[in-house]
Specification:
The structure is a homotrimer. By secondary structure, the first copy, chain A, is of the alpha+beta class. Chain A is built from three helices and nine strands; from the N terminus they run βββαββααββββ. Chain A starts with 16 loop residues before the first strand and ends with a strand.
């Protein structure tokens, strides 16, 4: 799928790589169906599959949650740690505080989900990962986690891969 | 404005699109003049206008706050929720704690704005959004919000659009 | 090093620049050796050097921490403020709470570092900065800070520069 790429001969150091070519952009969507109100899902393997299918060898992959109350972030895939993450979110943002967003006098939202908005804001709605050799760059223990914060729902991430194929 | 782009005929699935072409990069700035110390401004429409004006159809748009005490993040544009966001920031980072940054013995900053630095750190100073069909990719309720945390001030965001035109 | 770039003559406003050309991608790594358990390191100058060495004049630079317990974020380089940042992290995420990740009954991790995972999640593991005129775009007081949260360790950031050279 390579068009006009070429290894840059100036790069001697082993940690350095350089490439020049045309830009390829491919976009996909990734769905996550959740069963709990607050739920973490590891989508790393699915992101890797989409990157591989794009044919892009060097570049970036952008992950974007299409929802205000669904976040995407990096951490380890361990059940005990995921329980700690949920506990921290509950401590930092009390679901049952008297948030204005949950008050019919001030808000037309009937989901009573202010905590979900606030928790997603702290985790973030997107990630931009590097791609090399056709794979996302991740550390040994790093996994891409989607945080459902107002489920159960069906959620969509937009996945865009940009780079040299 | 297209140079050498071409739809990738291999992409059969309806959610998939792929394009190859030359890279176009355009940069602009966006100003926000604030009236309060802590204030949220919805700049979504202005970002959309800049993306449209760039001629880039597929790619990314990077939003970068040029200030340590001004953040940019995603959430819903609702007055009640914005009040909740301000309240959460006040709870998580107490303005009147004895921060060293506010102590003339340790700091040459006379703005007494440690809270603004810490709150911006939690919200983040930048976003990288996807662009498709000449528009930023956003979910139904997602808006791009600028958080003034040490106003009133005049603030600048750098907006860079990169992709295939 | 320019291949086929050209200033877009349509752009009259002083804040606007536009360029079209081939895509160059270069990747490097950046090491940070830490001496404390929680430690902030300013890597701005080293990122600037890598961007300059890449030959990319307009584009983006992605910084990615290869570790779950090491974050990268933007703030001012001031010793007093860095003390405040550490204090806030300690307040928001109590190291000595009974986290499940630290409990041998639930976790095979012997580092007892749940707090480091949770603190990194709040700061974020990556940044995507804009590049213009061969330099990262940063505000007057903005510095790129690496947060060691479970040191002392040797840490690696992957630095990828993408754009028009």
């Amino acid at each position: 799928m390579t068009k006009s790429s070429a290894i840059n001969a100036e790069s001697a150091a082993p940690s350095v790589s350089a490439l020049t070519g045309a830009l390829t952009i491919r976009a996909d969507t990734l769905s996550v169906v959740t069963a709990e109100r607050v739920e973490l899902t590891d989508v790393t393997d699915r992101v890797c599959d989409l990157v591989a299918a794009s044919g892009v060898r060097e570049g970036i992959v952008s992950l974007w949650s299409m929802h205000t109350t669904c976040a995407v972030f990096i951490n380890e895939a361990q059940r005990a740690l995921h329980a700690d993450i949920k506990r921290l979110l509950e401590t930092m943002v009390d679901r049952h505080a008297d948030w204005m967003h949950n008050d019919p006098q001030h808000s037309d939202c009937d989901r009573v989900n202010a905590d979900a908005h606030l928790r997603a804001m702290l985790l973030g709605h997107s990630l931009t990962l590097q791609v090399t050799a056709g794979e996302p760059v991740l550390g040994q223990w790093q996994r891409v986690l989607v945080a459902e914060l107002d489920g159960p729902r069906s959620r969509t991430l937009r996945v865009q891969i940009m780079g040299i194929s």
